[in-house]
Each structure stands twice: as structure tokens, then as C-alpha cells.
Amino acid sequence: MNNLPEIDMEEELFIGPTEHLRADIPPEPREHYVEVLKSAGRISDVMTALLALTGLSRAERALKRERLTRELAEQFIGDMRLLISTKYENLAGGHLVAEGAYCESVGDYVGAAWLYRAAIDFKIEDRKAAYYRFNNLGFCLNYLRCFKEALEVLEKAMEKEPKAYNAFKNAGVAYEHMGKTDLAAKAYMDAINYSAGESRCIKHLLRLVARNPGLKQDKIVVSYLTSLREHGKI
How far apart are CA 45 and CA 22, in angstroms? Predict the structure, then answer.
């Protein structure tokens, strides 16, 4: 158990006001995928079902998913996983990632986590999408305080992109809330290195040190902070 108080996890993850993050909601992704299918000259019943499913998911977000049960949704995904051809599997997985990103943009982290989990079962050719389904799922799980599970999927994200800073930053959050301060500090420092000094990563490290004064005696952390200061990062 960690000693951190009950706090706003959105504030915890973003470190600062979040209003600006909601200002630009991504364009509707579904239209793009429908057009891709039309241009290919075929819209399968399975893909139509997939699009209908995600449409219902969005409607249910507005209605707090009062009518669509998770059991039914999981059955849809299971059926589609068996029926979608290799050609459409990549498209389906990419669509689920896009829908997950939309959920995040409007603050529906439960819905986003569900969609990213579903995307894991699909083969996705796009390297970034294949990475972000794991990284973003880890972020959402942190928000939901499922820190141990978050670390498990973030490790998979790191396997996909060993130097992508987001996964290390998110891992730092998970370690911090699990009370593993030393590992959190290392993860934040790795995130800073891989991001060439991204400001939010630095803020996470500084906040960790402020919360855990003992780190001010850690030679590695002190040396790292000194280097950041010398380079004008803090």
C-alpha cells in the first residue's frame, strides 16, 4: 500500500489544468473507416457489426451504458475475432484504438480501457497503433488505480517501442502509487532521457522528490537533478 492521499487521478496524471486537453476533440474516426471499406468495394456484415457495436458503445456512454451489457459487447468482440479476415483484422484493430482515443479525449477512461483491451486481440500492422493500445491502456489503468495491471501492459508497450517515453512516464506513475519510489524515480528519469526533456516528465520527477524527501539523499537522483538544472531544464 502507498501513503498517497485520495486525489484527483486526472490531475495526478496530467499535472495541471486539463481544460485545454478537452478543447480539441478528435474528428469522428468512424467515417474514415467506412470510406476505406467503400473504396475497397466491399463492406462485410462483420465490419458493419463492428461499426454498429462501437456506435452503440458511444450511445451507451451518453446513457451510462444502461442498455448494453459488457457480456454482450464481449460476445460481439469474440465473434468478430473469429470471423474477420486477415485483411479486415488490421482495420478492426485500428478502429478500436481510434475509438479508445476518442473515449480518452472526453474523459471516459473506463470505455477507453475496454476498447484498448479489445484491440489487443487484433493484429495491427501500424507500429504506432500497436504500441499505443498498450501504452494508452496503461495510462487508463493508472487513472482507474489498477497500478499492477498497468505495469503489466506497459511492459508490453516497452517491448513494442523500447525508447518511447510515454510508457516509462506511465510506469513511473504506477510505481509511485505502489510505493516503489526508487523504481518510480528511475522510470521518470528514463522518460526524461527518451523525450529529450519533456516538461511533464520533469514535473513528475520533481513532484516525486517533493513528496519523498529521502530522494534528496539519493546520489543518482541528486546528480540527475543537478544536470537538469545545468541544462536549464529546471
Answer: 34
User: For the residues 105-126, what does the mean pLDDT come to?
Assistant: 88
pTM of the model: 0.70
If you search the block for the grid coordinates 493484429, which residue do you land on?
123
CA 22/CA 32 separation, integer angstroms: 22
**How confident is the model over 149-174, as pLDDT tens digits?**
999 999 999 999 999 999 999 999 99
Q: Could you tell me the domains of the chain?
A: 9-149 (no CATH), 163-234 (1.25.40)
- Least confident window among 13-17, 93-97, 132-136, 216-220: 13-17
Q: Using the predicted structure, report yes or no on whether residue 1 has a pLDDT greater than 60.
A: no
